[in-house]
Amino acid sequence: QELTTLQDLVLQTKKLYYLLVVNRNAFQINHQNREIIQKVIDAAMAFYESGQGNYAEVLKGQIELQTVEEEQLGLTAEKEMIIALINALLN
To answer: Which among 10, 31, 37, 81 has most CB atoms closer than 10 A?
Structure first.
């Protein structure tokens, strides 16, 4: 019985660890996406200021940036939850 419980704890810890790795990778991708979107916004704003672009493109970029920033908040909360679960299993 104790061996099974120990094996279950090890398995759950491994699963949570891999979820943490996936979360970290998603966070890095999110960061890269934010940088790209910010560059697009800057370019759209430059076109708008030069009279060649449409402000709607700037707004679209800002909306997309807000979406990605909200995703980042979710990833941060998920990371904290996973770490708490790992700590609970290890204690």
So the answer is: 37
Could you write out the DSSP letters of every residue in 5-68? Answer: HHHHHHHHHHHHHHHHHHHHHHHHHHHHHHHHHHHHHHHHHHHHHTTSS-HHHHHHHHHHHHHH
Q: How far apart are CA 24 and CA 87, in angstroms?
A: 17
d(CA 4, CA 53): 65
CA angle 10–23–34, rounded 5-degree value: 170
The identity of residue 35, as a single letter, is E
- In this predicted structure, what is the pLDDT of residue 33? 98
| Greater model confidence, 3 or 46 | 46
